[in-house]
Design brief:
Elements: H1 16-19, H2 29-39, E1 42-43, E2 56-58, E3 65-68, E4 71-74, E5 83-94, E6 97-108, E7 114-122, E8 127-128, E9 132-135, E10 138-139, E11 142-145, H3 147-161, E12 173-182, E13 186-197, E14 204-209, E15 221-231, E16 236-241, E17 247-250, E18 255-265, E19 271-277, E20 285-289, E21 296-302, E22 315-322, H4 330-344, E23 351-357, E24 361-363, E25 369-370, H5 373-384, H6 394-403, E26 411-418, H7 429-439, E27 445-451, H8 457-465, E28 471-474, H9 480-490, E29 494-502, E30 508-512, E31 519-520, E32 525-531, E33 542-551, E34 554-563, H10 572-594, H11 598-611, H12 619-626, H13 644-651, H14 660-672, H15 677-690, E35 705-706, E36 709-710, E37 712-715, E38 718-723, E39 726-729, H16 730-734, E40 742-745, H17 749-757, H18 762-765, E41 771-775, E42 778-783
Length: 785
């Protein structure tokens, strides 16, 4: 039996008479956004991250089931039945003017031809002018609706579809265009170009492209790619994508290309690309945000120029290579190639030595050798001759290396590559650390690369940590040559060494990283901390920051004045969580390497629950508190944010239904290991927290889940936990409130009146029909019953 549906002007009050003539797919929010954006040339002013915009196709009426011969197929989300099978975004950015081209393919999997409206919620401050939208190669016109008219349409769709997702657009204007036809089991291609003007705030530019796979579409986005070209008349300094892991390719110091590509994208979160320009030697950039706590958050980024005509600062490097029996085969071959790359890359004035160790340690030269043609040739010959032996005498290799580094006048460092645990000579971890400490009186930086899983990860972490270095772990299947050579490229040209930072005005606390690294050309340094408002001259606007160190070999102090007023700015929603991630990483490192005091664990738990960050002390709480409900979140509720690798490393294999004690034991056991696969993954997880960004692994949901249900999500600066069927503000899980909540019945008159009075709360209301949160110092409880 074939279904036939007639769309009248009266059966679709949410869209009104004209819009009712369509029955299209308007559900997907990220694609919607792109399509919307594409739908017209937007001259967008830079808007705060608290506002989201997304394009989508809405089908006013659609049957609850599709009847086909021999079967009846239910339709889960009848108003949003389309999927995105291809999504391409290409942006050309010149001096803040952006031209974006979007190409999307929507797929209709049903046996019916569809008709609908493409909708694009306009962010505050956006101006639409001369937009271009093509569907199936034909140009399509649309109309622009003011905020009040747009709000009535959003509310009508919410009432009709029982889907609260559109409430996040409350207070925003709307552009809409008719899309027809969408063929049965066929595709519709949409291409859009729009122009956008970016207004810098404090020297910072933000390019934002909304993404919300699955919110108003069926399933994840497929075949997704971003290609962004940036050009400027001034020097491009920091370039950060704080949402996704991208490739940044620079062409000189005034042009760059940013690329992101994945076959599947199902985690929500807008594409956020930030950069600044300037001729200053370090190009410092400061972002601040007050958040919902007494203290504010700040981020200072230093970005040395990529290309410079200045002479490069000479450095001393000792390469320490494990040549034990376990390095036999492809490992030693890749280690040789990596070492050859590093020796070939040494600059004029650099000095070097090579130490290889197995049963005993050997030296390429009795002391450091200054690079010249002859020394480079001999070093390359030695590197190519390395062969694997037997035994692992790590302590002797480290002692030999540090004996070469005794002057305080030059930047000196050790680079270590090993794949095993000490088996010869001094093998006790405590004695090895004591020996290295005695030999490294000048606190030379030691950078450690651990290969594989047969490692004492805690020992390697402590060697690096106690010498102001870092540890990187290379999995057995990873390319050793690529990882080591990439690292060497970063440290090739030092700019500012022995870096120190001071805040003479006071009121600054909890700055991370605790031990500041050296600064190199083309490598950014980000500092995160807290500030106390109102402690400088009766206000909190400008604060002095002093950066000191050896700049190109000479002692220098740079003085800057930053605005700490805490006004809204790009990226502010992310600051609190990024700061918390770094502090948690630091605390976990202290607990793991030095033994954990109770107060450290208590602080980890508090920060983890407040900001929704998985740790070995809180993952079991999330499993227990969130996994008891049998229902999934409301349709259209956003996926949570998080870090899959951190989550997996810290969960310790806890399964649903286990008791709290057992879950706690499992996670802690995995965290406390000092060797083997679990120890290596725990070290990688802690390092990921210390360096975290919001960018996650493409194609994976980024928050904690259980039985396919997402248990954590983030709305602006706030974190929510799914407890039973209810989303609960993390501030209420950390500290219980004695206030009587304001109760709002879902979709009631009072509910929409609250939304009208507080449109920014729409993003929270969009979570679903069961939500408890804090708004304007009041507890709000939304319930469907």
């Amino acid at each position: 039996m074939q279904l036939k549906r007639t769309f009248s002007e009266t059966n679709c009050p949410c869209l009104g008479p004209r819009l009712c003539k369509l029955k299209q797919n308007s559900y997907r929010r990220p694609e919607m956004f792109r399509t919307l954006l594409a739908a017209f040339s937007l001259a967008l002013v830079l808007v705060p991250l608290s506002l989201r915009a997304d394009g989508f196709i809405y089908i006013p009426e659609y049957p609850d089931v599709i009847r086909q011969p021999g079967r009846v197929r239910p339709v889960v989300r009848p108003h949003f039945p389309l999927s995105i099978t291809r999504h391409r975004v290409h942006a050309e950015i010149a001096e803040g003017l952006v031209k974006t081209r979007v190409e999307e393919t929507f797929y209709n999997s049903s046996p019916r031809q569809l008709e609908g409206f493409y909708m694009f919620p306009l962010p505050d401050g956006a101006v639409a002018s001369g937009f271009v939208m093509k569907i199936g190669g034909k140009e399509v016109k649309g109309e622009i609706l003011e905020k009040d008219k747009a709000r009535s349409i959003y509310e009508g769709i919410v009432r009709r579809a029982k889907d609260p997702g559109l409430l996040e657009y409350a207070g925003q204007g709307l552009v809409r265009a008719r899309v027809f036809p969408i063929p049965a089991r066929g595709e519709v291609e949409v291409s859009i170009e729009y122009v956008q003007e970016l207004t810098p705030q404090g020297g910072l530019y933000l390019y934002r492209y909304p993404l919300s796979p699955g919110k108003h579409s069926m399933g994840p986005y497929k075949d997704v790619a971003f290609d962004v070209n940036i050009s400027s008349s001034r020097v491009l300094r920091s370039i950060n994508c704080i949402s996704h892991k991208v490739g940044v390719h620079r062409a000189g110091d005034k042009k760059a290309r940013v690329v992101f590509e994945t076959p599947r994208l199902d985690s929500q979160g807008d594409f956020l690309l930030m950069w600044n320009v300037g001729e200053d030697a370090l190009a410092p950039l400061c972002l601040v945000a007050r958040g919902h706590e007494e203290k504010g958050y700040f981020n200072i980024t230093l970005s040395p120029r990529v290309d410079t005509k200045e002479e490069k600062t000479p450095k001393d490097v000792v390469f320490v290579i494990d040549t034990s029996g376990s390095m036999r085969g492809h490992k030693i071959e890749q280690a040789r190639k990596a070492l050859v790359y590093c020796v070939e890359g040494l600059n004029e004035g650099d000095r070097f030595n090579i130490i290889d160790f197995s049963i005993e340690a050997r030296k390429f030269a009795p002391a450091l050798v200054e690079i010249n043609q002859d020394a480079r040739g001999r070093g390359l010959t030695y590197a190519r001759s390395l062969e694997s032996g037997s035994g692992t005498n790590l302590e002797e290799g480290m002692r030999f290396a540090l004996a070469d580094l005794k002057t305080a006048e030059r930047l000196q460092m050790v680079v270590v590559l090993t794949d095993g645990m000490p088996t010869i000579g001094v093998t006790d971890p405590g004695k090895i650390l004591a020996s290295i400490k005695q030999a490294n009186t000048g606190k030379r930086r030691v950078f450690v690369f651990g290969v594989g899983q047969s490692l004492n990860a805690k020992l390697l972490d402590r060697i690096a940590g106690e010498s102001r270095g870092t540890t990187e772990y290379i999995r057995d299947r990873e390319d050793i040559e690529l990882r080591l050579s990439s690292f060497y490229d970063k440290i090739d040209s030092p700019v500012l060494t022995n870096l120190r930072i001071k805040f003479p005005d006071g009121g600054i606390t909890d700055v991370f990283p605790r031990d500041l690294p050296d600064l190199f050309h083309g490598v950014q340094l980000s500092l995160f901390g807290r500030y106390q408002p109102g402690q400088v001259g009766g206000g909190n606007k400008n604060r002095t920051v002093l950066l000191s160190g050896k700049y190109l070999g000479e002692e220098r102090t740079f003085e800057y004045s930053f605005d700490f007023s805490g006004e809204a700015g790009p990226g502010k929603d992310q600051l609190s969580r990024l700061w918390a991630s770094r502090k948690i990483g630091y605390l976990l490192e202290q607990i793991r390497l030095n033994g954990g005091a109770k107060e450290l664990k208590t602080e980890v738990i508090r920060l983890s629950k407040l900001h929704g960050i998985i740790t070995p002390y809180t993952s079991y709480l999330i499993v227990e508190e969130g996994a008891l409900a049998g229902n999934t979140p409301e349709p259209g509720a956003p996926h949570p944010l998080g870090t899959p690798r951190v989550r997996d490393a810290f969960r310790g294999g806890a399964k649903p239904g286990i008791k709290r004690k057992n879950a706690r034991s499992s996670a802690a056991e995995a965290f406390d290991k000092d060797r083997g696969a679990g120890a290596v993954e725990a070290s990688r997880a802690i390092e990921a927290l210390k360096r975290s960004s919001l960018g996650g692994s493409p194609g994976k949901k980024s928050g904690e889940s259980q039985g396919g249900r997402e248990l954590i999500t983030r709305v602006g600066p706030f974190t929510f936990y799914l407890q039973g069927e209810r989303w609960v503000d993390s501030r209420l899980t950390v500290k219980k409130s004695a206030m009587e909540p304001l109760k709002l019945a879902w979709l009631s008159k009072e509910y929409f009146e609250f939304l009208k009075a507080h449109p920014r709360a729409g993003r929270i209301l969009a979570l679903g029909s069961e939500v408890t949160f804090i708004w304007d110092a009041k507890v709000i409880r939304v319930a469907s019953k």
